[in-house]
Write a structure and sequence with these properties.
- The protein has 333 residues and is of the alpha/beta class.
- It has 3 domains: 44 residues; 148 residues, no CATH class; 111 residues, no CATH class.
- 35% of the residues lie in helices and 19% in strands.
- The protein is built from 13 helices and 11 strands.
- It has a 9-stranded parallel β-sheet with strand order 5-1-2-4-7-8-9-10-11.
- It comes from Cucurbitaria berberidis CBS 394.84.
- This is F-box domain-containing protein.
Length: 333
């Protein structure tokens, strides 16, 4: 036995890094404050845990933080996913004791000037290990409302508001123009061929719902982005013809969640090979389905489906006998 102190700094860097990966969040942060050596050896655990996913909104403060992190010499290496949310201060996010007119002005100014697109362009160029880009209307502040469990860094949130904030579902949940600058920036940065795409749509009311969020028949979408679409979430009153065209353009979708108002949806099928060879999750709510499409769709994706949720589903013609027989035989469900 010896009374000499344990020399933790004498341990191999790889061992210290491995131990740090098992620490609780607070302990991991605290150990980085002890000394420079421990800070250096814990960087991999720190970056992997806290900076894998960055979330931003189209506000200059949020985008500035996103750009700063994307250019960070060390932390940028750990960023694998970036989500841009269409949430806006004064539209769906209402902080207390905040100078709302100035925020509204800032958000409008970067929209009019195109600065949001330029910042996103530089951020995407800088993130060399980026794998997934998401566009939605809820992950920055309303994540719990939409059931998002993916943790991430909310870029600029502390600077924008610190107290409890209200969510107004009667207002537009998000800025529908968010899709255009993000997609254009990805294409201009020439990273669209190596990143996967996750999209969510949520128009708030029938009066505000857009016929389309972007042109799904354009060459930019069909050639550059449709093959990279992996997850699609459509909630609420999205135009059924537009969402049908979007689904049929995708060639390798993995997850699909559609919620409508008894809209008629036609699921894509193919005669020779599966439309989506690695499709694993399907959620459908309050929709009408073409029976002649739904049955072959289930047959095609039965071998890969792991999760199936059907609620309020009806057929203009046909019944549930054959679909239920197929569902019962799915091996991974």
């Amino acid at each position: 036995e010896t009374d000499s102190p344990f020399r933790i700094l004498a341990l191999p860097a790889e061992l210290i890094s491995s131990v740090c990966a098992f620490l609780e969040d607070d302990d991991l942060v605290n150990i980085r404050c002890v000394c420079r050596v421990l800070k250096a050896h814990s960087t991999t655990a720190f970056g992997t845990r806290f900076f894998c996913h960055l979330i931003a909104i189209l506000h200059p403060t949020s985008l500035a933080v996103l750009l700063e992190l994307s250019r960070h010499e060390i932390l940028s290496k750990y960023v694998r996913k970036v989500t841009i949310s269409g949430e806006l201060l004064g539209h769906s996010i209402f902080p207390l004791q905040t100078d709302m007119p100035s925020h509204l002005s800032l958000q409008k100014s970067i929209e009019n000037s195109g600065l949001d697109y330029l910042i996103l362009l530089e951020a995407f160029k800088a993130l060399q290990n980026l794998e997934v880009v998401g566009i939605d209307v809820g992950s920055f502040h309303a994540a719990e409302e939409f059931g998002f469990c993916d943790h991430g860094v909310r870029c600029g949130r502390v600077q924008l508001y610190k107290e409890n904030v209200g969510i107004d579902h009667n207002e537009a949940m998000g800025n529908s123009r968010v899709y255009d600058p993000v997609l254009r920036a990805l294409h201009s940065a020439n990273v669209h061929e190596r990143v996967e795409l996750s999209l969510m749509f949520h128009p708030s009311s029938e009066e505000d719902w857009p016929v389309s969020f972007f042109d799904v028949q354009s060459l930019l979408w069909t050639k550059s982005f449709a093959p990279r679409l992996r997850d699609l979430y459509s909630l609420g009153l999205v135009d059924s013809k537009w969402i049908n065209t979007l689904m049929h353009s995708a060639t390798d979708l993995r997850e699909l969640h559609l919620q409508g108002d008894h809209d008629l949806i036609s699921l894509p099928t193919s005669n020779k090979i599966s439309q989506w060879p690695e499709f694993r999750k399907l959620e459908l709510d309050e929709l009408l389905l073409q029976h002649r499409d739904f049955v072959p769709f289930l047959r095609e994706h039965g071998p890969t489906l792991e999760y199936l949720h059907l609620q309020g589903i009806g057929f203009p013609d046909g019944n549930w006998i054959e679909p239920l027989e197929i569902i019962e035989s799915m091996p991974k469900l």
